[in-house]
UniProtKB/TrEMBL annotation:
Protein name, UniProt field: Glycosyltransferase
Superkingdom in the source lineage: Bacteria
Gene3D superfamilies found in the cross-reference section: Spore Coat Polysaccharide Biosynthesis Protein SpsA, Chain A
Membrane-spanning parts: 12-34, 296-316, 336-356
Keyword terms of this UniProt record: Membrane, Transferase, Transmembrane, Transmembrane helix
Entry-linked InterPro entries: Glyco_trans_2_hopen-assoc_HpnB, Nucleotide-diphossugar_trans
GO MF annotation terms: glycosyltransferase activity
One term under GO cellular component: membrane
Listed PANTHER family: GLYCOSYLTRANSFERASE, SLR1566 PROTEIN
Native organism taxonomy: Bacteria, Bacillati, Actinomycetota, Actinomycetes, Streptosporangiales
């Protein structure tokens, strides 16, 4: 056999392998697009709902650690909600060193009527086995008394007027034990515009919002920036102590409530907006890497499987398409399958990403670049495992999650 003929057989074999991988990727994308809870649909947001016969008492719990800079942008939007019933806000100062408690008290202006207004409480010393944020949330619950609903929210979240009222309308009209809104994140910088929409897209792929909302579906999650929870249901499920070590507290809380029979709803929202900036790639990288390996249960096998799946689903289609079409241009007829299949899978991928880009008012022309962003996420996930092995897993705001607290998920 001549060298030319042997080389041709090798090229055909390589193209055949790429074609098989492309077909596997296409099968994956057909399932994701058609059979995975329509995860790519951003949805209309909360319906208006009807007024309840009586407006239940609501207390918002805001864990805050070194948030003095952002509170002036966010806390006033919560205090100005004009909820028709009794509405109070509790800011839990979680060991801040920047005067967070003083800033919150000043913004509250002394507002308090026993049921409403603002209170600032100290988280105090964290018991062993508790994650910092969950402990601060539990201190807020203790201070809240016995409202019908607790609104767990983050210090960087701003609320559009009337949002709390709409949340309660939906919770009471649909008999929901959890109504969660995924906040609109900042996309002001170049890195934010690249990373943030993909973060939302991947979250929805892991936890399709429609499946979370569907009764009987096993998928459960929440978005920690805005979680309206029926207090009785939370207590019946074991309270926050049941997820005391959770590093990803929102997903753990959603699972806890749904497994206890609670009815949940999760939406993407423009009424709930994060004011936290991520100006540098390093900031966004840390946001993802701090919890990615925790999401994989600290399993090297799951880590390897996740990275392999990301490469297959996101990297193979563009590689097959570009390589295949280049081969066709050079007269390699065997390249037709990877060229066509890879391009189709890449097109479906981009089409499912476009709605999230539109939600963030970004051009759909960015969608074909999703494979590059996915490779960055694969690198962040691998780095998350590296940080964990180096004893820096879950590092956030100067505090690193202890091994016992990062492994307890409550889910």
């Amino acid at each position: 056999m001549s060298w030319t003929r042997a080389h041709g057989h090798c090229e055909a074999a390589d193209v055949s392998v790429l074609g098989v991988l492309a077909l596997a990727a296409l099968a994956g994308w057909l399932y994701l697009a058609l059979g995975h809870g329509a995860f790519w649909r951003t949805g209309p947001g909360l319906p208006e709902g009807a007024d309840p016969p009586g407006w239940p008492r609501v207390v918002a719990v805001v864990p805050a650690r070194d948030e003095a800079a952002v509170l002036p942008e966010t806390l006033p939007t919560l205090l100005a909600q004009e909820y028709p019933g009794h509405f109070g806000v509790i800011v839990v100062d979680d060991g801040s060193t920047d005067g967070t408690a003083d800033v919150a008290a000043r913004l509250g202006g002394g507002l308090s009527d026993g049921l409403g207004g603002l209170r600032v409480v100290e988280a105090g010393e964290r018991p062993p086995g508790w994650a910092g944020k969950v402990w601060a949330m539990s201190r807020g619950v203790q201070a809240a008394g016995e409202p019908e609903y607790l609104l767990f929210t983050d210090a960087d979240i701003a609320y559009a007027p009337g949002t709390v009222t709409r949340l309660v309308r939906v919770a009471t009209a649909e008999r929901r034990d959890l109504v969660s809104q995924m906040a609109t994140l900042s996309t002001h910088t170049r890195w934010e515009r690249l990373i943030v929409p993909a973060f939302v897209y991947f979250f929805a792929q892991l936890y399709p919002f429609r499946r979370v909302t569907r009764d009987g579906a096993r998928t459960a999650a929440a978005a920690g920036g805005c979680m309206l929870v029926r207090r009785e249901t939370l207590a019946r499920a074991g309270g926050l102590a049941a997820i005391r070590g959770a590093l990803i507290d929102d997903v753990a809380l959603g699972r806890l409530l749904k497994r206890a029979g609670g009815r949940c709803r999760l939406d993407l929202s423009r009424d709930v907006v994060s004011r936290r900036p991520y100006p540098r790639l390093a900031d966004l990288w840390t946001m993802v890497a701090r919890s990615a390996y925790h999401q994989l249960r600290y399993s090297p096998a799951l880590l390897a499987g996740t990275i392999a799946a990301l490469l297959l689903i996101y990297a193979v289609p563009p590689v097959a398409a570009v390589t295949g079409w280049a081969g066709l241009a050079l007269g390699a007829r065997h390249a037709a399958v990877p060229a066509a299949v890879g391009l189709l899978a890449w097109t479906i991928m981009a089409a499912t990403y476009a709605p999230v880009l539109r939600f963030y008012r970004l051009s759909a022309l960015r969608a074909p670049a999703l494979p590059l962003v996915a490779l960055m996420y694969a690198a962040m996930t691998a780095d998350s495992a590296r940080r964990h092995r180096a004893g820096r897993g879950g590092a956030w705001k100067g505090r690193t999650a202890a091994p016992q607290e990062s492994r307890t998920t409550g889910s």
